[in-house]
TrEMBL record:
PANTHER family: TUBULIN POLYGLUTAMYLASE (PTHR12241), TUBULIN POLYGLUTAMYLASE TTLL11 (PTHR12241:SF154). Residues 689-704 have a biased composition (Low complexity). Residues 83-99 have a biased composition (Polar residues). It comes from Cyprinus carpio (Common carp). Transmembrane segments: none annotated. One of its GO terms (molecular function) is tubulin binding. Pfam families: TTL. It comes from the Eukaryota. Residues 18-101, 130-150, 671-722 are annotated as: Disordered. InterPro entries: TTL/TTLL_fam (IPR004344). One of its GO terms (cellular component) is ciliary basal body. GO terms for biological process: microtubule cytoskeleton organization. This is Tubulin tyrosine ligase-like family, member 11. Keywords: ATP-binding, Ligase, Nucleotide-binding.
Length: 722
């Protein structure tokens, strides 16, 4: 027994390193919780280790308590080892028939073991009726590994109720008013900067995501991809950015009507930073654009309006899908298997001058239609003004629609959109967390709003950086008096999304999960999220399978060739001279030209300076709110396109850009061999395979034109509403 006591003393000393954490948690183990253990219990071994490790830390909250506890152990009468052996022998046959490892014994034995060394000593194998236990080292490691994940919800705001429910289901620890010591996960309600003092852990927002998903920036990012890949990105509507492209918009609409007087196109106007349908309206003529103070046009995006959407029960609807961007490097994207379908509340008619102002007919925003007298709150997932997306798919399938093809097109739309956003997101990330600076890792749930055309083609309406995660709605019980009523449809979809996002971000599971669910495949194939045995043990047994399915890197082979702009961004990041900056100075731009060997007798360094000044000045006028001087990423991309067209004439733009990328990457790679490269945390790397794939493809793209002159003409018109 003396050896056992010595082992107990050493165990308690090792656990002192987590005493501060236990004290911060404020946990206490009551005598009732110990005495309530039944005479015979059967839990999985890993789950017992997790619970008992928490109890062990709770019992040694301070130095005085730990010392008193150790004295209590030394004075306490331990269970009779003969009885222990007998109990183990009696339970041997039951243990051998169980698929998982179980603990058998009496309440006295469990209580004594826990009090002695701070965790349940789990039987790991049985030989001749005798139990062999983990030693002090293995037990200590297991206790630390399986400690409960901590979540700071002090900034969660509107997603708080669904988040609390998810944390309870996972049996994790919530800190609703924050915590003095670091948490594993920080859940912010608005942006990455909700809490500026995080230096570790994981945050559910990316720096710059709000900025990138404003209407204008999203349109610019997708437009860049449309210039390179017009066919692949024809799911986004033709767009004009106001006020800078007002004259262009007016001219194109006038020419369109002059060529065909019978055409009466309709356009939708969306404020740049608007949300929940605020400020959205329809027009048929540029003169109908609203102005501020009768002088200046608001910053907004004007887009083609889809006049023939798919209708259900004669009503227009859109789809809200939840997408998890788990990391930028490597890029990981998950799509929720279930989404929401949000219906208008007035039967749809094609737009005319009489019904342009009928928002309940044309706009699918929940925040607008909920105020309609025709809005129907339903407890059913297949009726009412808000339904599950699966109920729509079932209805379409009953009419013979190939819903597998619909899902395939939606998955492709999501992947392509995220690929368009990643380059600038990496620039934002490095600006907020420069190389060498401690900081958290990031993930984020995005809300994709998608409209199905009558021919079932999906059209991207917009992407929301902060999709609503509320699982209740307001109900007016009397005039002016409202109460919150649970929404079964919202709860079914949103709680699963948040819970399974947390499961994927569990620090103990990230390494195992990162290596699973990769490989080739086709979007038409059913995506099943499989977990290894370690991951299954680490998650609560009662939880359902993951509702999030991985689509990237699962489908890397199909979409990797699209990541051309990301390679340009990698070069841009390489030459940023100052940590934390997002703009390229003139000296850095000259260094880029020199190191990539792009100057010659016909393109001198003086010409380089003129190019830099011309493009930078123009983009400074388009970004009036910017406080930082220099060349932004979008301006650098324009300059790169210009250099590519100058160097490789008479080739399609995409081929020009790929060839120039190969020149630049080859020159920089040769330079890195001759001198030590400057370390950057750019979250990207050149991929020779992608350039080989792109170069081997037959390209067809319009000749290079100035990117500011006109938006790309798409064959399919598109409609956008929130």
């Amino acid at each position: 027994m003396s050896d056992h006591y010595e082992r107990v003393k050493i165990e308690l000393q090792q656990m002192k390193e987590v005493e501060n954490e236990a004290a911060a948690d404020g946990e206490q183990l009551s005598p009732a919780s110990v005495s309530s253990i039944p005479a015979e219990v059967s839990f999985t071994a890993r789950r017992d280790l997790s619970r008992s490790s928490v109890n062990g830390r709770s019992r040694s909250k301070s130095r005085s308590k730990a010392d008193g506890h150790e004295r209590q152990v030394n004075d306490k009468e331990l269970p009779d080892p003969t009885a222990q052996k007998s109990n183990s022998s009696q339970g041997q046959s039951r243990v051998s028939n169980e698929p998982n490892l179980h603990i058998k014994g009496t309440a006295r034995l469990l209580k004594g073991k826990t009090a002695a060394n701070g965790h349940v000593e789990t039987c790991v194998r049985q030989t001749d009726g005798k139990c062999e236990h983990h030693g002090k080292e293995d037990g200590s490691k297991a206790a630390k590994k399986r400690r409960a994940v901590t979540v700071d919800t002090s900034k969660a705001k509107t997603s708080l109720e669904a988040l609390k429910m998810s944390i309870r289901q996972l049996k994790w620890k919530e800190f609703p008013i924050g915590r003095r010591t670091a948490c594993d996960i920080y859940w912010h309600g608005v942006s990455f900067h909700d809490n500026e003092n995080i230096v570790s852990g994981q945050v559910n927002k990316f720096p710059g995501m709000i900025e990138m998903l404003r209407k204008i920036n999203l349109s610019r990012a997708v437009r860049t991809m449309q210039e390179l890949f017009p066919e692949e990105y024809n799911f986004y509507p033709r767009s004009w950015i106001l006020p800078e492209e007002y004259q262009l918009f007016s001219t194109q609409i006038r020419l369109l009507k002059d060529n065909d007087s019978t055409l009466k196109p309709t356009y939708i106007v969306k404020p740049d930073s608007g949300s929940q349908g605020d400020g959205i309206y329809l027009i048929r003529d540029p003169a109908d654009l609203r102005v501020i103070s009768g002088a200046q046009i608001k910053q907004a995006v004007v887009q083609d309006y889809i006049q023939k959407p798919l209708l259900i029960d004669k009503l227009k609807f859109d789809i809200r899908l939840y997408v998890l961007v788990r990391s930028l490097e490597p890029l990981e994207i998950y799509i929720a298997k279930e989404g929401l379908s949000r219906f208008c509340t007035e039967p749809y008619q094609e737009p005319s001058q009489k019904n342009l102002s009928h928002v309940f007919m044309h706009l699918t925003n929940y925040s607008l239609n909920v105020h309609s007298g025709n809005f129907v709150h339903s407890d059913s997932c297949s009726t009412g003004s808000k339904r599950t997306f699966s109920s729509i798919l079932y209805r379409l399938a009953s009419k013979g629609v190939d819903i597998k093809k619909v899902w395939s097109d939606i998955i492709a739309l999501v992947i392509k959109t995220v690929i368009a956003l990643v380059p600038e997101l990496k620039v934002y990330y490095q600006a907020d967390i420069p190389p060498g600076k401690p900081g958290p890792t990031c993930f984020q749930i995005l809300g994709f709003d998608i409209l199905l055309m009558k021919n079932l083609k999906p059209i991207l309406l917009e992407v929301n950086a902060n999709p609503s995660m509320r699982i209740e709605h307001e109900h007016e019980v009397s005039p002016g008096v409202f109460e919150y009523v649970p929404s079964p449809v919202d709860e079914e979809v949103k709680v699963g999304v948040i819970r399974d996002t947390l499961r994927l971000m569990d620090p103990a599971q990230r390494k195992q999960h990162a290596t699973s669910n990769t490989g080739g495949g086709s979007p038409e194939e059913a995506i099943v999220v499989e977990t290894g045995s370690d991951e299954k043990e680490g998650m609560a047994d009662s939880l359902p399978s993951l509702c999030l399915k991985q689509v990237f890197p699962k489908y890397t082979k199909q979409f990797h060739y699209l990541r051309v702009v990301e390679r340009i961004a990698a070069i841009f990041l390489r030459f940023l001279g100052v940590k934390g900056t997002m703009r390229l100075g003139p000296t850095s731009f000259r260094t880029f030209i020199r190191n990539c060997k792009l100057s010659n007798s016909s393109f001198s360094m003086a010409s380089v300076d003129i190019l830099y000044i011309d493009i930078t000045r123009r983009w400074a006028g388009m970004l009036p709110d910017s406080r930082e001087a220099g060349m932004c990423l979008q301006a650098f991309i324009e300059a790169f396109f210009y250099l590519a067209a100058r160097r490789f004439k008479a080739l399609p733009l995409r081929e020009q850009v790929v060839l120039l990328l190969e020149v630049c990457e080859g020159a920089l790679e040769g330079q890195s061999h001759s001198e030590k490269p400057r370390t950057h945390r750019s979250h990207t790397h050149p991929n020779p395979a992608s350039s080989q794939t792109s170069a081997a493809t037959t390209f067809s793209s319009p000749a290079l034109t100035r990117r500011r002159q006109r938006p790309l003409q798409l064959s399919a018109k598109a409609n956008t509403e929130n």
